[in-house]
Amino acid sequence: MMRVVDTLHNVALVLGGGGAAGNAWEIGVIAGLAEAGLDMTETADLVVGTSAGATAAAQVRSGIPAAELLVSVLSPPVQPVGQNSGPPPSLPMATVYERMRAISAAATSVSDLRRAMGAFGLESDSTLGAGAGQRRAIVSARLPHPEWPDRLMLVTAVDAHTGELTAFDRDSGVDLVDAVTASTALPGLVPTVSINGSRYIDGGVGGGDNAGLASGYANVVVLSPSGGWSQTPAERDRGPAERFEGLRRFPGTDLASQVEALRKQNSHVEVITPDADSRAAMGTNLMDPATRIPAARAGFAQGKREATRVTFL
């Protein structure tokens, strides 16, 4: 179920999706903001995580200082115990992006898009399903703690059958590792995730950052790794073929619309998207793990600069 905040709280942090590069960039920005005096790991009353942002949300809520989170991103990734047989199976990335764009072009609504993407994910399970356990182990290794934090955090995923967006929290009765694994389950690349009898896919499908979940908060900071890449159809057409962030956004689900809705509710909203240096560091394939270190470093530098305008009323 979607969570509705019916009282005005102070600060919400929204972390959007954007692959390996996006996750690293978000941690870099958060560390840069903290270096400049704005520590979102302590300040945020709510953290919303979608896709790569779900992993970042669990990291931010772990109690580990922002500077240490950055150090961990700049270090070699931890190999899950017993996972030495190579990467889990996946479809060719070019095939996945082509299929996703075709689904996006044919969709008539966001619900239609999400259901079609769910169907693609379920169809892909025949090829990818054998790697489900390995995928969960990989996600678990990325999380500082396997338990939900005490402080409020939402992790989004999409029901593969119904297309409904779901926001899991510590009261959902769902393991944190399962919630984050579901939120990062991009159709065609990783298998769908079974939770309480339903199958789930990436929480960013059809909605990107899900900033609307911060409704009711006086101050909202949105880190959107993909928000600066493709804002118009023409820009999407010019974008590199390796990017999946060019998926169609229906009215009300795009970041600009959600930010406008929050501001109409009198929320003070600041949006940070990758600047030119960060975009160069993140490259054209945001899923490439090799982008993590340069993206984190660029995000850290950008975060220190952005701190001058991220102020709370």
Structure write-up:
With 313 residues, the chain is α/β, with parallel strands linked by helices. Helices cover 41% and strands 14% of the residues. The protein contains twelve helices and eight strands. Strands 1, 2, 3, 4, 5, 6, 7 and 8 form an eight-stranded mixed β-sheet that branches. α1 (19-35) packs parallel to α12.
Q: Which consecutive residue ranges, at least 5 long each, have pLDDT under 50? A: 1-8, 229-246
Helices and strands: which structural class? alpha/beta
What is the approximate shape? globular
Q: Could you give the count of β-strands?
A: 8
Question: How many helices does DSSP assign?
Answer: 12
Radius of gyration: 18 Å
The secondary-structure element order is EHHEHHHHHEEHEEEHHEHH
Query: How many angstroms does the end-to-end distance come to?
Result: 31 Å
Report the biggest beta sheet as strand number plus sense, adding barrel if it closes: 8 strands, mixed
Strand content: 5-15%
How confident is the prediction overall: mean pLDDT? 88
Give the helix level as a range of percent: 40-55%
